[in-house]
Amino acid sequence: VNQSKMDFFCKLGYNKQDICKVLENLGQEALEDDVLKELIRMGSKPQALEDQAQPSQLKLVARGSCSTSAGLKWLGEDESDSSDSLRPIVIDGSNVAMSHGNKEVFSCWGIQLAVDWFRERGHTYIKVFVPLWRKEPPRQDSPIADQHILEELEKQSILVYTPSRKVKGKRVVCYDDRYIVKVAYERDGVIVSNDHYRDLQNENPEWKWFIEQRLLMYSFVSNRFMPPDDPLGRHGPTLSNFLSKKPVLPEKKWQPCPYGKKCTYGNKCKFYHPERQHQAQLSVADELRAKTKVPLSQGKEEERCQCSP
């Protein structure tokens, strides 16, 4: 069995048996992109990588026992276990690096800034995808800055390289966007990118909905990573709710009506009326009729007459 392919797909969390089965069907020289497509078609789902990385004694401790908090602190989490409430983060490394480098330089520092921003918020699952050829010495046509950062993030199990190789002197690159969307979709997380992945949206209707609802765009302002406060527009969720598995709805603070008792909006008024607290909310027309003691049915007939041409 091709060990490098086996290691790569195990790193993504796939079952060894499923990987072996696909490699037997497609052959050992099959491209990683084709192997991934076949794994998706088989319905194979990656296991949680964090569970595999944790020491066995932590897995055996019951959540309610005294030693749990110590174990969580050792993992760098607090007692509330923020990983339960915050969504996993999957970063499009190339998009972030090129954006930070003004589309001229692949700036690895941009990736570090994004990772730090999510770390500070308490996200425990952060993955960055970058093509493998970015490990190579930079060329004039594709400059790269602070390349050592990629190595450091790989040691921390945050950065994952998508496969690429050379065939007859030409570089064959696997489609890293597919890895990004697939991992985020499988983990029900958030994609950090300014790319809309239109080709992948057309490829899979489930991915289309997911990309529309879970894409977090961003800007760099003076070396500061800044996602928008309203990721899905003015009427969508706040950034905190967007990044949380359990959104917190704000309490409605009723503002008193500036017109007070003179207000003529009736039940259409969006402000608070203390004098109407125990009254049935009538429409403006019905309220006026009640004041002038005009029967309801008569009023409606009058309205009809006025409306007709």
From TrEMBL:
Q: Which GO terms describe its molecular function?
A: hydrolase activity; mRNA binding; RNA endonuclease activity; zinc ion binding
Domain (C3H1-type) spans 251-276
List the cofactors. Answer: Mg(2+)
Q: Where are the zinc fingers (C3H1-type)?
A: 251-276
Q: Which Gene3D superfamilies match?
A: 3.40.50.11980
Q: Which GO terms describe its cellular component?
A: cytoplasmic ribonucleoprotein granule; nucleus
* Pfam families for the chain: RNase_Zc3h12a, UBA_6
Q: Which UniProt keywords apply?
A: Endonuclease, Hydrolase, Magnesium, Metal-binding, Nuclease, Zinc, Zinc-finger
What family is this?
A: Belongs to the ZC3H12 family.
The name on file for this protein is: ZC12D ribonuclease
- Origin species, per record, is Molothrus ater
Question: Encoded by which gene?
Answer: Zc3h12d
